[in-house]
Amino acid sequence: MPQGHIARKRFGQNFLSDANIIRKIVAAIAPRPGDLLVEIGPGLGALTEPLLAASEHLHVVEIDRDLIARLKEKHDPAHLTIHEGDALKFDFGTLGSPLRVVGNLPYNISTPILFHLAGYADQVRDMTFMLQKEVVDRMVAEPDTEAYGRLSVMLQYRFNMASLFDVPPGAFRPAPKVTSAIVYLQPKPAAECVCTDEALLGRIVTAAFGQRRKTLRNTLREWLKEEDFVALGIDPQARGETLGVADYVRMVSHLSSHTHSGAM
């Protein structure tokens, strides 16, 4: 195992070790001096070292005490600020803005972390992550495709996203059983995020994709009646995967301007 550290399954640890892939990721991030840069899960420092060299100061969020000890031993706190703990519970808002967030996210908690970070979108300049390719495919999926779902709608509402390139299992030690991918996220301007009730948007989207084979008439019966579908110009016989992000936002706007027991 690299540098004597045994990867821990409970932390979803797979350490990046391919020098060419590391250079490619750092080039995609393009760190500059003065960037307010935070790395989630620095691990053994494959990305940490080049990021620190280019940006002059780096924040890292790490949960593994052994890895934290290594980081403290190797780096001057004037250049590397270590935040000990779970990234899912970390308040990224305390770091200031505009934040640039990067990292090889633990695949076992990647979706919760993405939703957690979406809450800080107004303080973020951009985010570049390595994730399981299947998750990245879902993030950037188009409507009416198998990969399109709740993750697609909720993240596409808040971010412009692009899948940059794939990373093979052999680039890691230990090698995971899946292919990874690098994804880039940039928050949309506030003027484009016009949903009147984002919590309601989340509930509706979750319901629409909760039973993918059912029609919207069935999955959204708590909120939408026949006349609502008519007013929205949406076919109640359609399925959730056929609607774009704007369609779901229109639903929320419609519900917010009408009184429905299900919308309360």
Relevant terms:
disordered C terminus; about 260 residues; seven-stranded mixed beta sheet; S-adenosyl-L-methionine; about 35% helix; 10 helices; Rossmann fold; Helicase, Ruva Protein, domain 3; elongated; alpha/beta
> How much strand?
15-25%
Our measurement of the CA-to-CA distance between the termini, rounded to an integer number of angstroms, reads 54 Å
- Oligomeric state of this protein: single chain
Mean pLDDT equals: 91
Q: How many β-strand runs? A: 9
CATH superfamily of the largest domain: Vaccinia Virus protein VP39
Rg over CA atoms: 21 Å
Helix share bin: 25-40%
- The CATH class designation of the largest domain is Alpha Beta
Q: What sort of overall outline do the alpha carbons produce when their principal axes are compared?
A: elongated
How would you describe this structure to a colleague?
Helix 4 runs parallel beside helix 6 (150-158) and helix 7 packs across helix 10 (245-256). The protein has a 7-stranded mixed beta sheet with strand order 4-3-2-5-6-9-7. The protein is elongated, with a radius of gyration of 21 Å. The longest helix is centred in the C-terminal third of the chain and has 13 residues, at 198-210. The protein folds into 2 domains: 2-191, Vaccinia Virus protein VP39 (Rossmann fold, 3-Layer(aba) Sandwich), CATH 3.40.50.150; 198-263, Orthogonal Bundle (Helicase, Ruva Protein, domain 3), CATH 1.10.8.100. The chain is α/β, with parallel strands linked by helices and 264 residues long. Strand 5 (99-104), helix 4 (110-118) and strand 6 form a beta-alpha-beta unit. The chain is built from 10 helices and 9 strands.
